[in-house]
Amino acid sequence: MIGVRYYSSQTRSFPRRLATRLARLPEGAPHASGWKLWAQRLFGSSKPRMARLQDALVRELGLTDRVTRSMVQNELHQLHFHNPQADIKTPTLLVHGHAASAMAFHRNFAGLSSAVQDLYAVDLPSNGLSVELPLELELPPPLPLRIQLQNDTFKLPYTIEPLHQRAVVQGFENYYLDALEQWRLDNKLGRINVVAHSYGGYLSFKYAAKYPHAVAKLCLVSPLGVERNAFAVDNRWSSNTAYPTNYTDPASKYYIPSRPAIPKLIFESQTRLLRALGPLGAKLCWNYIAAAYSRVPSVTYKQYVFEMFYGKDGLSQTSRDIFTGLFTNRLLARDPLLNCLEHLRVKDLMLLYGDRDWMNRTAGQQLAQEANSIGITADYNEVSSSGHNLFLDNPEEFNQRVVQFLDE
Predict the structure, then answer these.
(1) Read out DSSP for 354-375?
(2) pLDDT by residue (tens digit) across 220-230?
(3) How many Å apart are CA 126 and CA 131, to the nearest integer?
(4) Where does the signal peptide begin and end (predicted)?
(5) Residue 142 — very low, low, confident or very high, per pLDDT cuts 50/70/90?
(6) Residue of 309, 335, 312 lying closest to 322 (CA atoms)
(7) Segment (H or E) for 11
(8) At what angle do helices 299-310 and 278-292 cross, to 10 degrees?
(9) Rounded CA gap, 325 and 124, in Å?
């Protein structure tokens, strides 16, 4: 998931911050012509450019002697860092967020592979350089769960079928969960540790719950979808009945955050909207990347992210469809993690956030607290001077906290 640096509600709103990033190139950032960026990507796949940029980025890191890159079963792209001198023997997998790839962790590869004997990072199916696998759902789309807000109450205008809703959500999730399990088996791995960011954190939690034999330790890095909420499929709302809205407590099933919803067109179109704007969209996309990743020194990485965002097939339709099927346009999960905690069987759990994170840190604290109450050893920690992309903003401290967690 692509993040923005945290500001308090007393400063600028999210739409204003986003508009600023889109419209204004940060001081010192490399300039790019929107017309040139647009013209170069009118035709053809973005995958060859992404592959070339990834090659260049690995060379920049100086890790070519430690990493092996491959396509597992000609479907899933992975990087495997092998260091037999490292102390942590349990294989560890890094899982990226939405609109991202394994290269999101490029600033962490050196530090983590110095401590972990076998470190893996994968592009999820239909992301990055992995193949766009077919999405096959056995059920038709359910009736949309629309909630009507009025003053401090909400209601549903009609009755929904919760079992149908849950079955469709599980179908979307299984697209990724089963692929991760197949990846583990193809690599002939036993129990693994998983370190996963944002949307990848949500998916990795669900993977650990579905395949409890597969995961030893789970580190959720600013995970998406933690909060209980009024849109959750397990709620049993009656139609045309007013319920009190809770704006502050992410542990409440009545929770709806006070922040505005993302407009439906933007939420459903995502990066397609940028391409539809032509040269202007290309320029706005470059401005946003330069601002959102201002603390990342590599221009190559920014170019790589641009290919994912603006390239013709950088972000697949399948990945967009699954994301919008699992989350509302308020970025609330239809099957939130707090509702699924009883199914988790990991040995240890860590919640890790940036101290300036826009993600709901109170929800992370609640998840750690409830996990401890059912016998899972869980910790909550924050990385200083960092936002949602904490592993990019402060890689040294991030690596230190992750290694300490994995090594205990």
Answers:
(1) ETT-SS-HHHHHHHHHHHHHTT
(2) 999 999 999 99
(3) 5
(4) none
(5) confident
(6) 335
(7) none
(8) 140
(9) 17
Mean pLDDT of the region 172-197:
98
Q: State how far the Cα of 67 lies from the Cα of 282, in Å rounded to an integer.
A: 33
The residues that bridge with 247 in the sheet, in sequence order, are: none
Is 254 a member of any domain? no
**pLDDT score recorded for residue 43:** 87
**Per-residue model confidence as pLDDT tens digits over 36-66:** 988 988 888 999 999 999 999 999 999 888 9
Any idea which residue has 């766009």 for tokens? 132
Residue with tokens 């998931």, as numbered in its chain: 1
The rounded distance, in Å, linking the Cα atoms of 52 and 54 is 5
Residue 186 lies in domain:
66-142+168-225+315-407
pTM above the 0.70 mark? yes
CA atoms within 13 A on the CB side of 398: 30
Give the pLDDT score at 32.
Answer: 80
2-13 exposure pattern, b = at least 16 Cβ within 10 A, e = fewer: bbbbbeeeeeee
Is 48 part of any domain? no
Number of domains the chain is built from: 1
pLDDT in tens, 81-129: 999 999 999 999 999 999 999 999 999 999 999 999 999 999 999 999 9
* CATH number of the domain where residue 380 is located: 3.40.50.1820
The residue among 57, 71, 175 whose CA lies nearest residue 123 is 71
